[in-house]
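Curious: why these numbers?
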Amino acid sequence: MARFYAGPRPFLRDEAEKLAAQRYDRISVRPLSPTIGAEIGGVSLAETIDDETFADVKRAFLDWKVVFFRDQFVTSAQQAAFARRFGDLEVHPFLPSRNDAPEVIVFEKSEAIGGYENVWHADVTWRLEPSLGSLLRAVEVPDVGGDTLFADMNAAWQGLSDDVKQRIDGMKAVHDFTRTFGRYLSADELKKKQEEYPPAEHPVVRTHPETGRRTLFVNGGFTSHLVGLERADGESLLRLLCQQAAVPEYQCRFRWEPGSLALWDNRAVQHYAASDYWPKRRVMERVTIIGDRPV
């Protein structure tokens, strides 16, 4: 059964104390919550960052799971160049991109095209090798609304009851793009893409390859079912697991401004783009870093 919490979640204390004690030599770090999310200052993404400063940025990224940069009026090319410091960039097979840079995804929302990313998810978990992370840049944002929320999926795993943890240990889940992007394809297009991107099985609980943290790795956007369970039982358990991202104590919330960027660790967090600004215009650009196969 799920554990019922009212009041403090004591298992967050160790992580919060560790993060509060962290010191960075080349950058400033301002936390947005005790265990997830921090704004980084003292660095310009428009310039080539020296190795020592980049090492601090990467350490903060791994520590806080999502980091934010303000007043960075960079180009798409500069955004991509910074992201490539973390690894190669992917080309998304379904989302629109810039004509001159296929790795740069464009999210352009308006009265004609609303925002539909308002579900808790991690990016491209339907790939055999889901992404390491993403770097999202605000190009044009409404005066009010359009925030993005992030959830700490290590905290989500820790908050499960011991019996649920034991039950899902070693369990696999299937991730499938057809739950989302497949709805907009013709039958022929869908068949072709399913051959190119077949459903992927990943651990329900993955181990982060760099930090060693255990994170809950199922999401409402792309996870279709749990392997080896009867339908009703599997749907009930999957629903419980996906609900963990919605706990406010595991979250931070970011208010966008022009020139803001967010860099999140797709192995450690889920995110939710609040779609409360329609019919106003919101334009964002994203680059995504290729990751590895979850274990």
